[in-house]
């Protein structure tokens, strides 16, 4: 083999190696988007939401949702629909951090995060999430999923849908308007004795 051919072969091998190395490092940077909740929503019977010292429990009996410990408020259908249609369907995307020491920076630590536990009919936790507000992009939030130490950037901000106030989830039942009694008959018209 000639010296020029050997050099060309070495250069080709080096460039091929660099190409695959570059491609491998680029694939690690790609953002993958995946829904945080993948189980069957029909199996959910309870939600626990905690933010700091405040907490609320939403429980289902048959098809009716109730605020545990509160029998004066009826669940607002829009609030519970948002929980199923938006919060549980939020997508986790880019990994922001894997360092638990930075959880506070992203508001996903135990004290500043909004905790959501999803529980099935057997009382098993089928989903556990800690949400944090993004201070730079208000249209997104951060999320930790279960025991995974990673902090993900969520594709939307759902923190405002995870309130712990009972009045966010429920409203007083609407009072039915009383039905007026039928009008009394006019004696001048109905009195047949005068005819």
Strand line-up across the major sheet: 1-6-10-9-8-7-2-3-4
Name the overall outline. elongated
- CA(first)-CA(last) distance: 135 Å
User: Please, how many helices?
Assistant: 4
Poorly predicted regions: none
Number of strands: 11
Q: Which oligomeric form is depicted?
A: single chain
What radius of gyration results from the CA coordinates? 30 Å
Classify the secondary structure makeup into a structural class. Answer: alpha+beta
User: Largest sheet, if any?
Assistant: 9 strands, antiparallel
Strand content: 25-35%
- Topology order in helix (H) and strand (E) letters: HEEEEEHEEEEEHEH
Helix proportion range? 10-25%
Tally of individual domains: 1
Provide mean pLDDT, rounded.
85
Explained architecture:
Strands 1-6-10-9-8-7-2-3-4 form a nine-stranded antiparallel sheet, with no helix packed on it. The protein has one domain. The mean pLDDT is 85. 24% of the residues lie in helices and 30% in strands. The longest helix is centred in the N-terminal third of the chain and has 27 residues, at 3-29. With 195 residues, the protein is of the alpha+beta class. The protein contains four helices and eleven strands; from the N terminus they run αβββββαβββββαβα. The protein has helices at residues 3-29, 77-87, 166-169, 187-190; strands at residues 34-35, 44-51, 54-61, 64-67, 74-75, 91-97, 114-120, 125-133, 141-145, 151-154, 170-171.
